[in-house]
Amino acid sequence: MTTDNIQPLIYKSTRGQAKELYFKDVIFEGLASDGGLYIPSVWPKLDNDLITEFKNMSYQDIAFHIFKPYIDTSISDDKLKEIIFESYNKFTDDEITPLNQIEEKEYLLELFHGPTYAFKDIAMQFISRLMDYYLTADNKKINILGATSGDTGSAAIYGFESVQSSNVFILHPHNLISPTQRKFMTTVSSKNIINIAIKGNFDDCQNLIKEVFSDEEYKKSKNLGAINSINWARIMCQITYYFYAASRISDIENVVFSVPTGNFGDILAGYISKKMGLNFRKLIIGTNENNILDRTLKTGEHAVKDVISTSSPSIDIQISSNFERLIYDACKDSNVVSELMENLKNKGSYKLSNEMREYIGTYFSSDTANKKEVEEIILSYFKKYNITLDPHTAVGVMCGKKQKLSEDILVTLSTAHPAKFKETVSEIISDNSFITDKVKSLDTLEEHMIIANKNANDIKKLIDNHVA
Ligand SMILES: *Cc1c(COP(=O)(O)O)cnc(C)c1O
Asked: What is the number of the ligand 1 atom nearest to the C-alpha of 420?
């Protein structure tokens, strides 16, 4: 396949009022200036022959073919390949995202073999290097500002650790992430890493970031960059493992992917893979008790409730940012999206039209796993298969089992290593053998973090103090 001489893809905002951009600018932009999210103007379709060839390709080679149509002329093929290979060097499994078959019709797609034990590494290792490439070429520095429900933060910190062209400020909800998640972030002692614990929940952290970024002048003067799950490059990176998994399974038409979902970034990548020509059957949205998306699919009403804290903290989310991209794709009308998002902001809810509900229903189904079900599935998989699931993966498995049809092949995305949630998991299975030396060593290191109120001006002051 040759992709030379093809015009680079244009990205536009889901709300239609922001400037159209090419790839290089999209990855630094984060939220669009109209409050929307950038989305490609078309979904590139891959040749069926190419998809068939993926069988014989490595994860890294597949990634190159996925990324290529989304990228502009700002980077050569050779450089892109080099960055992809470097990004996945630190993964502890040669397959990068190995498929673990546990039954004739059941697999776990293991996404936790990166340096911080969760799927966020797959995108963050790449983005940090890609940004560094662009920044170095332009002789620029950047200040990364991000919010984390527990795993994005550590993935960003490990991604940008060696990137001297940046400071990294990470907001996490104080006392609402697992101690091991926190220690992955706070035990890194580099001067360019600043951890801020916010007295609030993840949605508060996300809102603070949006507020700081909405001050255009401030954003420019500090050269702020976003690495949130709305960052387009993160979504793009995540498309790869759906194609990778499919290339290792023969009966792809019967595959359903079940995905524990919070901000809708991971599962959106699955939707896009289908748009690009991957012919699996369905995506299953798995939620814990914070089941706004499950309720949306079942009732058509997207209504925010209070966040409940559960054993799967990375999906304790009510404001599911990337869902806006699906909403846009379901109607292709930025006026409709803007109106729904206004309703969400002002009334805490919106209602989907019947057409949009129907569209979404052809690609997705959904379910909820409660605390007791999560515990049961972790214990039963430990006993039956000698596999230790993390609580997020357990949500995915449980919802997948509830939603799958008998002929389906269930592939659950295993989004984190259980050791990152060792406090919860060891209590459920009464066993500690899954805890790795790396995680044990975190408990011996000194932590660095600042505790702050949920106030955007306080965050700006913290940034000012660190940036000349
Ligand atoms: C971030 C995260 C999720 C949710 O991913 P989204 O893209 O926000 O839907 C699920 N599981 C784990 C372990 C995570 O870190």
From this structure: 13
pLDDT band at 6 (very low <50, low <70, confident <90, very high): low
Ligand 1 test: best mutation among 314, 366, 399, most atoms within 8 Å of CB? 314
Closest-lying ligand 1 atom to the alpha carbon of residue 263: 8
Q: Domains of the chain (ranges plus CATH)? A: 99-114+234-429 (3.40.50.1100)
Distance 220 CA to ligand 1 centre (A): 30
Residues recognised as catalytic: 120
3-state secondary structure of 373: helix
Q: Is the pLDDT of residue 75 over 80?
A: yes
Rounded to the nearest angstrom, the distance between the alpha carbon of 339 and the centre of ligand 1 is: 27
Alpha helices in 348-390 (DSSP H): 354-363, 371-385
Helices (H), 222-333: 232-247, 265-275, 292-299, 323-331
Q: What confidence score (pLDDT) does residue 323 get? A: 98
Ligand 1 pocket check for 24: Cβ under 6 Å: no
Digit-coded pLDDT (tens) for 10-60: 999 999 999 999 999 999 887 888 999 999 999 999 999 999 999 999 999
pTM: 0.95
Distance from Cα 262 to the centre of ligand 1, integer Å: 6
When pLDDT is averaged across residues 190-208 and rounded to a whole number, the result is 93
**Quick one: pLDDT at residue 229?**
80
Structure confidence at residue 2 (pLDDT): 46
Ligand 1 atom closest to the Cα of residue 112 is 13
Q: How many CB atoms lie within 10 A of CB 74?
A: 17
In the chain, what is the straight-line distance between the N-terminal and C-terminal CA atoms, in Å?
Answer: 48
Q: Tokens 């039963």 — which residue?
A: 380
Q: For 280-298, b where at least 16 C-beta lie within 10 A, e where not — what string?
A: bbbbbbbbbbbbbbbbbbe
Q: What is the pLDDT of residues 438-452, one digit of tens each?
A: 999 999 999 999 999
Calculate how far, in angstroms, residue 421's C-alpha sits from the geometric centre of ligand 1. 14
Helix, strand and coil content of the chain, in percent to the nearest 5, comes to 50, 15, 35
The residue whose CA has the least distance to atom 8 of ligand 1 is 263
